[in-house]
Amino acid sequence: MDAHEWDRRYADSELVWSATPNQFVAEDLAGLKPGRALDVATGEGRNALWLAEQGWDVAAVDFSMAGLDKARTLQARHERGRDLHVDWVHADVLEYDPGERRFDLVVLAYLQLPAEQRRTAVRRAFSALDDDGTFFLVAHDSSNLTEGTGGPQDATVLFTAEEVLGDLDGERFEVERAERVTRSVVPAADPNHEHEGEPARTAYDCLVRLRKPPAL
Length: 216
Known about the structure:
Rossmann fold, methyltransferase activity, alpha/beta, 26% helix, SAM-dependent_MTases_sf
């Protein structure tokens, strides 16, 4: 989907995604000391706003102006909205350049791109990290097509944690987590269950958390 298609999708409903942060973002990053964060493909800004609530100074990037407008509205409605430090940046993540600015945390949540574009986005995001920074990615795992449920049914935009590590071949990093995780179990009666006649199925995500060590 291009920016215009996402604009139309965001315009069709009040919120496409929940206003609360992704469960893995909240669980895994809650203990980090706040600093400068980059939220890549922020969408409607739910993860960026949560990070700002924790004290982070956030740059939140997306190519959908409609998504960013919703994010700004969520911030304006927030009881602490004026105190939350978020810079909403309208830019394509394949081209976004933060200049000399470096971040203590980079988050990519459910970025859906074909392999070559994903690799570009992942490497650009990683390059924006400062020394000792944390790279965090969560996405629909490709095993959902055969073993799980939910997420896009297009194999070209699904991937595994191992493939994300491959995207960063040649970079220096320490792996803190790189695995398939369970997002939820979808009951057979749930309208989101995509395999009619089969029992409950598990929705899987791939999760990658890396530390960028200081330069030698």
